[in-house]
Write the structure tokens for this entry.
Amino acid sequence: MQIDIGIKENDRNEIAESLKAVLADTYTLYLKTHHFHWNVTGPMFNTLHLMFETQYNELWITTDEIAERIRSLGVYSPGTYSEFARLTSIKESEDVPSASQMIKELVEGHETCARTARAVMSTAGDAEDEATVDLLTQRLTYHEKTAWMLRSLLES
Amino acid sequence: MSAETVNSGISEKNRDEVADGLAGILADTYTLYLKTHNFHWNVTGPMFGSLHLMFENQYQELALAVDVIAERIRALGDFVPATFREFQEMSEIKESESIPKALDMIAELVDGHETVTRNAKELIEKSEKLSDQATADLLTARLDAHEKAAWMLRAHLDS
């Protein structure tokens, strides 16, 4: 059925395509955080195990919101390992890094998510897709806050 | 302390064997979780309302189980595989690259739940032999969940 929500079809498709990258980054960062929640060791174990849990839960819940925004724009959502791996700018960690290396990787991941989200803002804004702009603004707030918290742990 | 120093009454060799089996169950469960979440997003047709909600209940149950299985692997002293590539390689469940029709989604999910059930049953027998009762118990709870989900999905396919 035709979609007529006041955003041109071209714009809807372009925004949805960009949101796929936001979804893939968020999903990849979620799985990395869950991975680190499981595999972290060392004196900071308890702090990090718990902090990573709070973070992976937030990221995972958000993947659902982003995917459903893509569907609301009339486009199917990616939902496989291979699509996420192709669409994301975040690299997975094949081995188990040290605790401080985990923190660094997660800071970089949150910064990457922030940059990917920011890149969609102007497209969505120009197309008057306020709902996407709002969603992305919330994502920026979250990623910048989490990056700050993780970064704080690295200072001596 | 390293993995070698775990002294919980199961030999290191047996712990590793169970943990390796659990890594396979984790990969199956994770792949089935993502497939279910994918179908929750992309299902269309007259059954949309009922499937979107049922898939949501199911992917949430699977996502919680993933954490329980992974933490059991850590408790046995092994690290947990947790990347797209490892899950893809280790899982017996294939991902769907295209978007199936609603009824095909249901059939694929039944198949997925049955696959995990079969693999879990095998590992229950093995972990009992190796006197890892906690793993056998965890997997028995998983059997219950998978057999129930498979029944509910299957019920939709009867005319």
